[in-house]
Amino acid sequence: SYLPSNWLSALGLYAWAQVDESSDNNSLIHPARKFTYVAPKDGDDTYVVFIIGETTRWDHMGIFGYERNTTPKLAQEKNLAAFRGYSCDTATKLSLRCMFVREGGADNNPQRTLKEQNVFAVLKQLGFSSDLYAMQSEMWFYSNTMADNISYREQIGAEPRNRGKTVDDMLLIDEMQNSLAQNPEGKHLIILHTKGSHFNYTQRYPRSYAQWKPECIGVDSGCTKAQMINSYDNSVTYVDHFITSVFDQLRDKKAIVFYAADHGESINEREHLHGTPRNMAPPEQFRVPMLVWMSDKYLASPQHAQMFAHLKQQAEIKVPRRHVELYDTIMGCLGYTSPDGGINQNNNWCHIPDAQKVAAK
Q1: Domain-embedded: residue 157
Q2: What share of the chain is helix, strand, coil (3-state, %, to 5)?
Q3: How far apart, in whole angstroms, are the C-alpha atoms of residue 16 and residue 293?
Q4: Which residue has the higher pLDDT, 122 or 6?
Q5: pLDDT grade, residue 235 (50/70/90)?
Q6: d(Cα 71, Cα 62) in Å, to the nearest integer?
């Protein structure tokens, strides 16, 4: 796991981020200004959490039929809809540019130049308070979310309460608890950027999660494919624990949680790989789980219950989902509408076609 550095290092990272070409918010199109968004009548006490996963593949998750039970806790969640997803790119920095903007909001060029603000900035402009906590250091992206508070790996690891602790994704749960306590009224967004299943896989989980052995210890060049898959699958089980720990903080609240990993991974003999140019990348580098969870209080609304039933139905028939649908899905599942095209209903997983509404009646 990562050794935390001091605030000077954090400050240096922040300064570097300010010169990254993607952090120039002023040049981006603002969907909240371009379109009209009508808020749901019952949205003011809602909590929204988005978990950004890292390198986790759906075909290594038990809930999608993988032979190993890598997701025992998610398998118990009745309020969960789980989709086989496909990433918009194969590397973290590139996927972060295309997965949270409207379809077409990032260029199709190799560097994925941003053209529009992301959905988190839009929610901020629509009145949500927001906090972002990260086990990574993609500062250009964090500043683009317009979050009120941003804490990332180096800062979180250096906090006095975390002295002596392993710096892993579970430290984000403490940050989340504080964020919820400071925003008791709701209308609050929390973004959690995890380290997930990023190599070195064995560093992603504590020893108590070393279920499959022998593991890949050290550099990948000394590891067999079987060892790497054992370590990778152990990391997925820790991801399962982390995601359900997020749900645990929200069970008594009116809340909706989204999860999507940024990209997949190729795991071969003595090598692991992602970031292959997307026109050449093998399919496993695009395989990402995409999840939606709603609390009981969120589902108490008949409209939300209807949306969830639709999501479950889509998941059961294995409708594939894409990163570029997240913007419209987050807005749609929260109950926002847009009379002038601000939500593409074809990309909104919570949109129930009129024909289905009639059939339901």
Answers
A1: yes
A2: 40, 15, 45
A3: 36
A4: 122
A5: very high
A6: 5
- The whole-angstrom distance between residue 35's C-alpha and the CA centroid of its chain comes to 25
Give the CA angle between residues 38, 141, 177 to the nearest 5°: 75
- Could you tell me the two tokens for 360? 């339901």
Q: Nearest-CA neighbor of 184 among 108, 253, 279, 261?
A: 253
133 sits in which H/E element: strand 129-134
Residue 86 belongs to domain with CATH number:
3.40.720.10
Q: Does residue 2 belong to any structural domain of this protein?
A: no
Burial of residue 279 (CB within 10 Å: 0-12, 13-18, 19+) is exposed
**Euclidean distance between CA atoms 246 and 227, whole angstroms:** 29
Its sign, for the CA torsion 242, 348, 357, 317, is negative
| Sole residue written with tokens 């972002």 | 132
Domain that holds residue 188: 7-360
Q: How many domains does the chain have?
A: 1
**pTM score above 0.85:** yes
Q: What is the C-alpha to C-alpha distance for residues 274 and 154, in angstroms, rounded to an integer?
A: 24
Q: Residues 64, 236: contact at Cβ < 8 Å?
A: no
